[in-house]
């Protein structure tokens, strides 16, 4: 079955999400620096781009930069005066991401903030940012905390996307000993139960294996 997931993803990616040199070099930099190869798939990056266009995103927040692969897909939906703030714990990853983003011609749109996201998010809230799209894709244990901060920095109509919510099906085990699974479960509960947010979650298969994503739209803020 997994063979077929790959074949179909290759077909869909070639059709909808071909990678240009900037994206190819971003993946190459990930391998060369021995960073984990856990960027979104091309068609998932393109989905983020579609969603950014859908909300007419001018301000995007990403939590978890890695080499900037998903960053580049999303930033390509921004207008010339748009802005994407992306949060990364590792200074060496952030430096590589900056090189990739500049090479993609997007340096003027992107602000990489280095450090633990749990420390950067209150700073962003104090700066009174309002984001049209938030992509949560960092340490899974902290997903509920990141979502809680995201909810303070959105408007009616904003989208919030959470990556890796299925993890080979582990998410359905309430007794999982994996803190990452428990973090995703609590994050999904918060997303599902927050008044004024309409949300769902979907399972996905493809070159990233069996996983899923959650998406919520903010209708009203209290
Ligand atoms: N969004 C990227 C993949 C991100 S991988 C893409 O699809 O291309 C997750 C990233 O989150 C890693 O780079 C990791 O270093 C970073 N991360 C992990 N813990 C973090 C934390 N506490 N604060 C900020 N970033 C963190
Ligand atoms: C992992 C993290 C991700 O963001 C991802 O898309 C896939 C895997 C991980 O930590 O294993
Ligand atoms: Mg991910």
Helix-strand layout with pairing:
Blueprint: H1 2-16, H2 21-32, H3 42-54, E1 59-63, H4 69-75, E2 83-88, H5 91-103, E3 110-114, H6 117-126, E4 131-136, H7 143-151, E5 154-163, H8 179-193, E6 197-206, E7 209-218
Parallel strand pairs: 1-2, 1-4, 2-3, 4-5
Antiparallel strand pairs: 5-7, 6-7
Helix pairs in contact: 2-5, 3-4, 6-7, 7-8
3,4-dihydroxybenzoic acid binds at residues 38, 137, 163-164.
Give structural notes.
This protein is of the alpha/beta class and 222 residues long. 42% of the residues lie in helices and 23% in strands. It contains eight helices and seven strands. Helix 2 (21-32) runs antiparallel to helix 5 (91-103), helix 3 runs parallel beside helix 4 (69-75) and helix 7 (143-151) packs parallel to helix 8 (179-193). The protein is globular, with a radius of gyration of 17 Å. The model has no long low-confidence stretch (mean pLDDT 97). 3,4-dihydroxybenzoic acid (DHB) binds next to loops.
Question: What are its keywords?
Answer:
seven-stranded mixed β-sheet; binds S-adenosyl-L-homocysteine; binds magnesium ion; 42% helix; globular; alpha/beta; 7 strands; binds 3,4-dihydroxybenzoic acid; 222 residues; 8 helices
Order of helices and strands: HHHEHEHEHEHEHEE
Structural class: alpha/beta
Read across the widest sheet, the strand sequence of neighbours is 3-2-1-4-5-7-6
* Small molecules bound in the structure, each named once: S-adenosyl-L-homocysteine, 3,4-dihydroxybenzoic acid, magnesium ion
Rg (CA only):
17 Å
């Amino acid at each position: 079955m997994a063979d077929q997931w790959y074949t179909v993803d290759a077909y869909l990616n070639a059709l909808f999400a071909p990678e240009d040199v900037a994206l190819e070099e971003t993946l190459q930099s990930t391998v060369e620096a021995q960073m984990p190869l856990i960027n979104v798939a091309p068609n998932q990056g393109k989905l983020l781009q579609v969603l950014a266009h859908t909300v007419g995103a001018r301000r995007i927040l990403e939590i978890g930069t890695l080499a900037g692969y998903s960053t580049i897909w999303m930033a390509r939906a921004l207008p010339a005066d748009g802005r994407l703030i992306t949060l990364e714990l590792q200074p060496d990853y952030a430096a590589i991401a900056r090189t990739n983003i500049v090479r993609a011609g997007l340096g003027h749109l992107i602000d990489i903030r280095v450090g633990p996201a749990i420390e950067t998010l209150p700073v962003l809230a104090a700066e009174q940012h309002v984001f049209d799209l938030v992509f949560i894709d960092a340490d899974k244990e902290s997903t509920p905390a990141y979502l809680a901060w995201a909810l303070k920095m959105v408007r009616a109509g904003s989208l919030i996307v959470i990556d890796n919510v299925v993890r080979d099906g582990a998410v359905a085990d309430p007794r999982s000993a994996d803190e990452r699974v428990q973090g995703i479960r609590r994050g999904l509960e918060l997303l599902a139960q927050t008044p004024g947010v309409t949300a769902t979650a979907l399972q996905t298969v493809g070159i990233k294996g069996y996983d899923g994503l959650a998406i919520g739209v903010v209708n009203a803020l209290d």
